[in-house]
Automatic annotation (TrEMBL):
Transmembrane segments: none annotated. It comes from Methylocystis rosea. Gene3D superfamilies: MTH938-like. This is Mth938-like domain-containing protein. It comes from the Bacteria. Pfam families: DUF498. PANTHER family: NADH DEHYDROGENASE [UBIQUINONE] 1 ALPHA SUBCOMPLEX ASSEMBLY FACTOR 3, NUCLEAR PROTEIN E3-3. InterPro entries: MTH938-like_sf, NDUFAF3/AAMDC.
Length: 125
């Protein structure tokens, strides 16, 4: 993604690779964290799981058609998602799986292959 595209790539994309502070998808690479939704992938200004807030969850929940599952990759290590954020997802009927980013990328890709309505917030490692 580049500054000219506003940090957004439309369409559903599997994550081809991760590491080195970013991700590869859709034949391009992005340095930094991302929010991947069925409608597209966008850059997010997060460097740690502690920075995940209501606005990030609201962005995921605003997805047209809704989500079945939201995968959160918390970086190198598994860190819990704040209870209030998890409750917000549950109240919207969205399952939430929190794990280290590597596992989250693999889980997200499997769910995309299964044609599930999945979103992922992935902290770069």
């Amino acid at each position: 993604m580049t500054s000219s595209d506003g940090g957004y790539v439309p369409g559903r994309h599997k994550i081809d690779d991760y590491g080195g502070g970013g991700f590869r998808f859709a034949d391009m690479s992005h340095r930094g964290s991302i929010l991947a939704l069925p409608s597209g992938v966008r850059a997010v200004p997060l460097t740690s799981a502690a920075e995940i807030d209501d606005s990030m969850i609201d962005s995921a929940l605003s997805e047209s058609g809704g989500l079945d599952v939201f995968v959160v990759g918390t970086g190198k290590d598994l860190l819990p998602l704040a209870g209030g954020l998890r409750a917000k997802l549950r109240a919207a009927g969205v399952g939430c799986e929190t794990m280290a980013t590597g596992a989250a990328v693999r889980t997200y890709n499997v769910l995309v292959d299964e044609n599930r309505r999945v979103g992922a917030l992935l902290i770069a490692v």
